[in-house]
Design goal:
By secondary structure, the protein is an alpha/beta fold. The protein has two domains: 19-143 and 282-302, Rossmann fold; 146-280 and 314-323, Rossmann fold. The chain is 40% helix and 19% strand. The strands form two sheets. Strands 1-12-6-5-4-2-3 form a seven-stranded mixed β-sheet, with helices on both faces. The chain has a six-stranded mixed β-sheet with strand order 8-7-9-10-11-13, with helices on both faces. Helix 3 (78-90) packs parallel to helix 4. The two termini are 14 Å apart. The structure holds beta-D-fucofuranose. Beta-D-fucofuranose (GYE) is lined by residues 48, 50-51, 124-125, 178, 206, 232, 234, 259-260, 280.
Amino acid sequence: MNGKRSGWLIAAACLVSLAAPAAQADDLPKLKEKPTYKVGFAQTESNNPWRLAQTQSMKDEAAKRGWQLVYTDANSSAAKQVADVDSMIAQHVDVIFLSPREEKPLIPAVMKAKKAGIPLFLIDRSVDPTLAKAGRDYVSFIGSDFVEEGRRAGEWLVKTTGGTAKIIELQGTSGSSPANDRRKGFMEVISKSPGMQVVASQDGDFTRDKGRQVMETLLQAHPEATAVFAHNDEMALGAITALEAAGRHPGKDITLVSIDGEKDGLQAIIDGKMGATVECNPRFGPGAYQAAADYAAGKKIEPIVVNQDHFYDSSNAAQSLAGSY
Ligand code: GYE
């Protein structure tokens, strides 16, 4: 393993808690301490490098620990993801790790696991906190602070544009926690600069091709756009394709900022087409399984465990490329 990769893994495992002391409800399902576990991981989709890296990390860590992994892929369907969790319950897994596609439709999955007495951890995305609560209905949420990611993207854009920009926003999957929260953080920051204006905003479902299509349409309606905020690198890369097809020069006559830090995103920064990307680390395996082991051992698990993320721009993209996914 090279130094950079091991650095990433250390970063992935470096989890810091922001929340108040855990108040685990008495009826939260317990996990018995065992030499090995049968765990379920309900993935939402596998159509981008971020998802593939997340799945790989969950598989690698299960293999490393000798735990049995029941893996499902919901193929971008919240209904299938609920059924996938049902099937894990039927297979009597010891613990469930769920990356909920959207905030509301996955509430039944969380509640059914609780009713079946199976502890559940949300990893990467969250569910509506008014309908299901960490420490009460499920053990914990482990993931990035998406509001903060949006803020960091917004701060970079304000600084880079000198506080004046006409922005096209490419949103992630509508109803998902990263789309809701990244937008919230971004708007919070840019609303303080009167010259920063979002001229159009649309759902690109976190995919490269949707990002390209949406950008194509929005650009026709808003040729005056000077900046793009994409909720992930895949959509930013799709936007670059659309911009170039329209005769624009990404990185020169239009400034792009996004989130994730995947290999192609870093390459776009190196190529001068994308300005910056806020890291959102997909390598959940070590932290997630350790949290389950700690829970079984009776240690206190914080209801919200926040991953620490880096930031990439032209100053560090090249040196980070080898360790990326
Ligand atoms: O940014 C995106 C992925 O939920 C944080 O989902 C994750 C997001 C990530 O499809 O690329």
